[in-house]
Write a structure and sequence with these properties.
Its EC number is 4.2.1.3. It holds the Pfam family Aconitase. This protein is of the alpha/beta class. Helix content is 31%, strand content 17%. The strands form 8 sheets. A 7-stranded mixed β-barrel has the order 17-20-21-22-25-24-23. α21 links the parallel β20 and β21. The longest helix is centred in the middle third of the chain and has 16 residues. The chain is globular. The chain starts with 5 loop residues before the first strand and ends with a helix.
Length: 702
């Protein structure tokens, strides 16, 4: 029995599989749990954007440069909730790893998936990764018979799409993205000018508002007995990390070639720059070793630290105390350069305010240069052992050099050996003792796993839809609030409500670990909701941090303390937000957390797909302002009280209907309710998707 494969996964970068012609995308953990319990997934049929590729990449231009260009184009086009399909003669010039790199960043450009139909390149990859010739020819026959195979040697008929974009690959130039968003692309030759503009600009996605007289400030510090200096834009973290790039042989071996040339010329990385290498697969380690290039990466400090999400999700660990003190005491805008896919504020590290996404070879180059305040065309990366200035062009490999090493070093047997080992696991994992019994034994003393309150006081009959009456505004946000702002995964700040909770239970500060590692404990995650240190809440009039105003008293409190006070007083709360609310990771805690804080509705200009679906899953009402309207056009300050009347029966609510929001200041406005399907309305009727599934399971059993 043959049918086209498909997959959903709880990581937003599940979309990488679309590079292989397998339809797939990320969902929140809430939706995934429901799917595991047999609940089908509902969605509105998406529009499909046709993205035509022509030409070929110029020498020295990487797949990362291409994906950052594509991400910027698609964000500008607006593809939230849509499918993107890539086509055109330029496809034959893209390796499967390059396609997977583009598909991987679907969440950053906002699409549900970036799909690459199966062609000869896909079949070659299946052979490379150890699939048998029989299997590959069967796949080809099936797809051809069903008109799903693209053969670029045959004349192509024009396809009909909802909208169109086109890119000539020859126009792609080396670039980075930042300092705060993945789609803020900067061509490499404009980087120095852009950096100076960012220092000047008022605080925002492209600004730090550093006064002119402080821009050339030098922070002197002592690094383990050696005098050292830090300036604005100096690199303190350089990480080859993230699933986007670290499974792509051309950029990984390209980075290793840069390291080799740099070592041969005598270049070094400053010892206080935290360097790391986290491959996307065990295969990468095999081909880096097979090529003989890993030793050069090691020499520059890019040792393998592990596999999986590291710096890109905030797991970079601490930077040296002396460096940290120099940054904080002198208010230095320090930089991180990473080959990741997300660089939102406060995500990579609390002390790196500027975070740039770059290809792995450029990560090595910036580590060597030690600063993002550099024009690689005219300024040297460093000085070689003979005292000669070394420029980026002196250590940059040609596309031919990279292709030669890839051809020689990446072999089918590596994939076979690695894949076989996966199922055997590792001894440590295999030796874990697994408790028997049908019910999980909750340990009340555990600070890692705690029984969540979602099913407390749950009855068999659904509670029905809830409106919102006289709610206070917990937070008032602008655009591009990410799931990292809502529910950080990184380090637990020593002065946060979560830290207080842990210390009260005898957990030492060095054992705090991260929010991501403690996501099995709702007490900590509720306290970590809106705990991002770079949170910009308009109720605070320009102050940055995880605080808000308790409106009735005017007191400034942590978001958690304010939410608990509203809850204890019996008040509902709502959140006001701008465009792209909830972009970033498919983090279900970004919906579970607000629900536990008592948030009943979010009123935004627009929502990112996965987060809107997660809010619905937790029984929170997502509302969109009408096009061209937002909190400011309605003169809302967040000091009002909000009432949203909904019918008492779910049968009287329609997906996408208009809803009136009334405030106590006399202002009222119309929003669109973002329950997009009848199924989502059923979830809302039940108080959330989990309750809906549990009730259905019990009814089936009875």
């Amino acid at each position: 029995m043959l049918y086209p494969d498909s997959v959903v996964g709880t990581d937003s970068h599940t979309t990488m599989i679309d590079g292989l012609g397998v339809a797939g995308w990320g969902v929140g953990g809430i939706e995934a749990e429901a799917a595991m319990l047999g609940q089908p997934m509902s969605m509105v049929l998406p529009g499909v954007v046709g993205f035509k590729l022509s030409g070929k990449l110029r020498d020295g231009v990487t797949a990362t440069d291409l994906v950052l260009t594509v991400t910027q184009m698609l964000r500008k086009h607006g593809v939230v909730g849509m499918f993107v399909e890539f086509y055109g003669e330029g496809m034959s010039e893209l390796s499967l790893a390059d396609r997977a790199t583009i598909a991987n960043m679907s969440p950053e450009y906002g699409a549900t998936m970036g799909f690459f139909p199966v062609d000869h390149v896909t079949l070659q990859y299946l052979k490379l990764t150890g699939r048998s010739d029989d299997t590959v020819s069967m796949i080809e026959s099936y797809l051809r018979a069903n008109k799903m195979f693209v053969d670029y040697s045959e004349p192509q008929s024009e396809r009909v799409y909802s909208s169109y974009l086109e890119l000539n690959l020859e126009e792609v130039v080396p670039c980075v993205s930042g300092p705060k968003r993945p789609h803020d692309r900067v061509p490499l030759n404009e980087m120095k000018a852009d950096w100076h503009a960012c220092l000047d600009n008022r605080v925002g996605f492209k600004g730090f508002a550093i006064p002119k007289e402080y821009q050339s400030k030098v922070a002197e510090f002592n690094f383990h007995g050696t005098p050292a200096q830090l300036r604005h834009g100096d690199v303190v973290i350089a990480a080859i990390t993230s699933c986007t790039n670290t499974s792509n042989p051309s950029v990984m071996l390209g980075a290793a070639l840069v390291a080799k040339k740099a070592c041969e010329l005598g270049l070094e990385v400053k010892p206080w720059i935290k360097t790391s290498l986290a491959p996307g697969s065990g295969v990468v380690t095999k081909y880096l070793q097979n090529s003989g290039l890993q030793k050069y990466l090691n020499h520059l400090g890019f040792h393998i630290v592990g596999y999986g999400c590291t710096t890109c999700i905030g797991n970079s660990g601490d930077i040296d105390d002396a460096v940290a003190a120099a940054i904080t005491e002198n208010d230095i805008v320090a930089a991180a350069v990473l080959s990741g896919n997300r660089n939102f504020e406060g995500r990579v590290h609390p002390l790196t305010r500027a975070n740039y996404l770059a290809s792995p070879p450029l990560v090595v180059a910036y580590a060597l240069a030690g600063s993002v305040n550099i024009d690689f065309e005219t300024e040297p990366v460093g000085v070689g052992k003979d005292g000669k200035k070394i420029f980026l062009r002196d250590i940059w490999p040609s596309s031919e050099e990279v292709a030669h090493v890839v051809q020689k070093s990446v072999l089918p047997d590596m994939f076979k050996a690695t894949y076989e080992a996966i199922t055997k696991g590792n001894p440590m994992w295999n030796q874990l003792s697994v408790p028997s019994g049908t019910l999980y034994a909750w340990d009340p003393k555990s600070t890692y796993i705690h029984e969540p309150p979602y099913f407390k006081d749950m009855t068999m009959s659904p509670p029905g839809p809830h409106g919102v009456k006289g709610a206070y505004c917990l937070l008032n946000f602008g655009d591009s609030i990410t799931t990292d702002h809502i529910s950080p995964a990184g380090s637990i700040h020593k002065d946060s409500p979560a830290a207080k909770y842990l210390m009260e239970r005898g957990v030492d500060r060095r054992d705090f670990n991260s929010y991501g590692s403690r996501r099995g404990n709702d007490e900590i995650m509720a306290r970590g909701t809106f705990a991002n240190i770079r949170l910009v809440n308009k109720l605070l009039n320009g102050e940055v941090g995880p605080k808000t105003i308790h409106i009735p008293t005017g007191e400034k409190l942590s978001v958690f303390d304010a939410a608990m006070r509203y809850k204890n007083e019996g008040h509902d709360t709502v959140i006001l937000a701008g465009a792209e609310y909830g972009s970033g990771s498919s983090r279900d805690w970004a919906a579970k957390g607000p629900m536990l804080l008592g948030v009943k509705a979010v009123i935004a200009k627009s929502f990112e797909r996965i987060h809107r679906s997660n809010l619905v899953g937790m029984g929170i009402i997502p509302l969109c302002f009408k096009p061209g309207e937002d909190a400011e056009t309605h003169g809302l300050t967040g000091h009002e009280r909000y009432t949203i009347d909904l019918p008492s029966s779910v049968s009287e609510i329609r997906p996408g209907q208009d809803v009136r929001v009334v405030t106590d200041s006399g202002k009222s406005f119309t929003c669109v309710i973002r329950f997009d399907t009848e199924v989502e309305l059923a979830y809302f009727d039940h108080g959330g998707i989990l309750q809906y599934v549990i009730r259905n399971l019990i009814n089936v059993r009875q």
